[in-house]
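Following up on my earlier thread - several people asked me to post the actual chain instead of describing it. Fair enough. Here it is, all 293 residues.
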Amino acid sequence: MVASNSLPEAIRNANNCQKDPILGFEYSYGYRPSLAAGIIFCALFGIAFFGHSLQIIRLKRSTSVFLAVGALTELIGWIGRTWSAECPYNRNAFLIQITTLIIGPVFYTAALYVLLGAFIGVLGREYSILSARMYTIVFLTCDTVSLVVQAVGGAMASMASSDGKDPKPGTNIMVGGVIFQLIAMSIFTLFTLDFLRRSAKFGMPQEYNKIIIALFISLAAIFARSIFRAVELMEGWTGYLMMHEAYFIALDGALMVLAVVIFLPFDPARTIPKAYPEAKDDTRELSDYSSGI
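Reply from S.P.:
Thanks for posting it. Predicted structure:
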């Protein structure tokens, strides 16, 4: 790392827009980010943010709030990368994407945790080990811890990089936050599988199947992305994965688009009611329920 006062005049200002490479001074990323990728992902996350924001206005559901905030966080991060494509030495643009893209998926997992709790609240306590309220308390607490740890680590790494210091301490904290998130998601996956086992026994409305499938697709995308980011960060800022944008585009950007966009056509806010009849009608046709997924 190079102290800012030792940088060439053209890139000494953190908000510079020096485009051409300067001999002896690498771009902050180790490469010049793709402008086309930046524009595409800004558009995709913008669509996701707009779509879920409309659902907040129309239906006022917490799942839509978390998905919209996550999409907005990713959008800000990709705006930073798009800015970097035009101004690759701009440290402000670089720091924006570091701090936002690392924490964006935390809001998606929060939506999944709330979603499973909603299923339990609608279908009944017998469908789960934990109550709907405990899902909210336990897993949103884990999500909050993960968010704070990753945000603190990202801020530390960003400030260290900007000051020409070693960003490794902050990076290690970021890795710890990502790994903690992976552990929480692993436990959540086990509870979700238990929910499916019980659903096969007690039955479940068929219209919920598509939401469960969307939940698993989103969860798998976040899980794969978190593994990638943990490995990438552990390799360091000059590691192979960090220095090759194609991996970031495929294993972070594309997966996070999938994780949030899947809930536009399969939106739980439209499918799962806010309230459910207190007592099920015993005369209800069995055809209203599936035997599972």
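The longest strand covers residues 204-205. That should answer part of your original question.
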